[in-house]
Amino acid sequence: xxxxxxxxxxxxxxxxxxxxxxxxxxxxxxxxxxxxxxxxxxxxxxxxxxxxxxxxxxxxxxxxxxxxxxxxxxxxxxxxxxxxxxxxxxxxxxxxxxxxxxxxxxxxxxxxxxxxxxxxxxxxxxxxxxxxxxxxxxxxxxxxxxxxxxxxxxxxxxxxxxxxxxxxxxxxxxxxxxxxxxxxxxxxxxxxxxxxxxxxxxxxxxxxxxxxxxxxxxxxxxxxxxxxxxxxxxxxxxxxxxxxxxxxxxxxxxxxxxxxxxxxxxxxxxxxxxxxxxxxxxxxxxxxxxxxxxxxxxxxxxxxxxxxxxxxxxxxxxxxxxxxxxxxxxxxxxxxxxxxxxxxxxxxxxxxxxxxxxxxxxxxxxxxxxxxxxx
Length: 375
Known about the structure:
The chain is α/β, with parallel strands linked by helices. It has one domain (5-374): TIM Barrel. It is 31% helix and 20% strand. The chain has 10 helices and 17 strands. The strands form 5 sheets. The protein has an 8-stranded parallel β-barrel, surrounded by 4 helices. Strands 2-5-6 form a 3-stranded antiparallel β-sheet. β10 and β11 (201-202) form a beta hairpin. The longest helix has 21 residues, at 158-178. Mean pLDDT is 87; it is low at 1-37 and 367-375.
């Protein structure tokens, strides 16, 4: 039986940030699939030093635990050093409450518990990077289609749930402080279109009072961040998916504003094969800036460089044709990123704070001998 593990990079972005390609060079029983050496390089628009050129690389601890290693110009290096040298100045890390089953089986997706999230933050800070902490308030993925409570919180009354949000957030902040890594920005919730901590904090379909309850939960988490900020001015982000949907953003942020939720930054997710054109995203961003006077971070985006499948799972985008005018190719991916950075830099009143590319160092994996392995 073939015991080799074949790894391929999903996203070749290092060239876009201005250096050579980084490839995965795994351990003894792993064969690396090296990307094409002829990667186009483009000059990004001039940006101030504080402009976020970020990545969400929450999978890294799991990749490294499975033997994944990275190199630049043929020399193996710590991935954070490669990113820093390549122009990346910020790291985003997600946090799940208890990402394993009652019997102790891990859920996957990077198994991002508190220890791993602190590890990512420490490595970011050691390399002089900005650190964005993404609190999901769930044991696994939280997004517009699912915002499930942590299993241990499931039977709490709303009053007790509100207190639990505070206590949990405070404990997370204290744990980071104890390890010498205080986040620069905290997301209180992830892709909150449909609320959080269902059904208590769901933003629709609960018989009235939805945004009052959601706002109460958000305020509890936000207060806990501020009460445990170690004297640091930590920015609070509220994050929605579907950056092209102006009606959604107005509906949600109008209600949050009416309920006096205080926050600093609006985060957006934008995946063009799901959400539509760059032009529509731009129009929404400009309206949101005008309406709420808050800076915007494009906190999740990505673009495929190939239509080939690396494993048995379906690709997020399964076609071969262009996406909103961009070819599914290395060149198309590079041009997309150039245009996205230009869009964010040119937003009115200098309110585009930056971009995070989502899981740029992830790769496919399969299951062999009862355990998850890269594939």
